[in-house]
UniProtKB/TrEMBL annotation:
Domain Rab3-GAP regulatory subunit N-terminal: 1-112
Pfam hit, one: RAB3GAP2_N
Bias type Basic and acidic residues, positions: 91-103
Organism per entry: Micrurus spixii
InterPro entries listed in its UniProt record: Rab3GAP2, RAB3GAP_N
Protein's name in the database: Rab3-GAP regulatory subunit N-terminal domain-containing protein
Chain segments carrying region Disordered: 91-115
Length: 115
């Protein structure tokens, strides 16, 4: 069994430790710590394992988050206003059939710590 702890950012010490574990003695350390997903597993061998998956990018800037939220709110407002003011087309659109989500192949995660 496993549980996802979620996305976490590292402290400077953890960032240096992770960079040296992944890249070795001559690892380069970035200015912005990468975001990582942490998974805790429980099984028979090993009993408990801690896995870390790098997300490949740093946390989004607050301006990007604010722009995305504003875009979603504007879109929702105009959709609601078009229905109220009669801008909506008289013809109802056909319901779109839901497609099955694409499942990516499993990615092996090397275990970092084991108890």
């Amino acid at each position: 069994d496993y549980v996802s702890v979620g996305i976490m950012t590292l402290s400077p010490f953890d960032q240096m430790k992770t960079a040296s574990t992944i890249g070795g003695f001559n690892a380069a350390i970035k200015n912005n710590p990468p975001a990582m997903s942490q998974y805790i597993t429980v099984g028979s061998n090993p009993f408990t394992g801690f896995f870390y998956a790098l997300e490949g990018s740093s946390q989004p800037l607050l301006s990007h988050v604010a722009f995305t939220v504003a875009s979603k709110l504007t879109s929702a407002f105009f959709n609601a206003a078009s229905g109220w003011l009669g801008w909506k087309n008289k013809q109802e659109e056909e319901p779109v059939q839901k497609q099955k989500p694409k499942v990516e192949p499993a990615t092996p995660l090397p275990v970092r710590q084991v108890f």
